[in-house]
Amino acid sequence: TRPVPNDVILPPLIRTLLDAGIAPDAITVLVATGLHTPKEGNELAELVGDPWVLETVRVENHFARDDAAHVSLGITKSGTAVKLDKRFVNADVRIATGLVEPHFMAGWSGGRKVIAPGVAHAETITAFHSARFMEQPGCDNCILDGNPLHEEQLEIMAMLGGATAVSYTH
User: pTM, whole model, 2 decimals?
Assistant: First the structure.
């Protein structure tokens, strides 16, 4: 739901997957809505930025309040119940794209934040926005070292099976 140049990122990314032999119906662009209103119609087309993407692969919204659409990964050491979108958890390949900018609690947006809260259940998301994190001095813009929310997100990434960061430039 953030202003990301999807019109620049998604077409070459999807073409690369198609060129590698992945069938179009095996590719889903999952819009990481968090608790934001899902994008539909013209708003979704504007977010995706390229009609070819909408015509070629599935583009679906995440719905944070849909209990049946999530799977539990357990509970973090600090007590956050971790539930993520089944489509993302069960995917053979997961690619997260997003904007990296200062974030008032997580230090920086993008990366792990695209996953949690992006495709997390409402219960997981509201835990992030609780006093447990919001009142911590390390939860602030541009701070990663000693940031409890950032550390929580990294723990969730580990619970998911880790992640490999890859930079792609068009």
Answer: 0.89
For residue 28, give the nearest of 86, 73, 85, 88 by alpha carbon.
88
> Which pLDDT band, with edges at 50, 70 and 90, does 167 fall under?
very low
Q: Mean pLDDT, the chain, as a whole number?
A: 91
Q: Is 103 noted as a catalytic residue in this protein? A: yes
d(CA 164, CA 150) in angstroms, rounded, equals 17
pLDDT tens by residue, 76-106: 999 999 999 999 999 999 999 988 889 898 8
DSSP line for 33-63: -TTSPPP-HHHHHHHH--HHHHHHSEEEE--
Strand segments (E) across 64-141: 70-75, 81-85, 102-103, 107-108
- Which of the residues 36, 70, 150, 170 is marked catalytic? 36
Which one of 103, 121, 129, 170 is the catalytic residue?
Answer: 103
Residues in the chain: 170
Q: Is 36 a catalytic residue?
A: yes
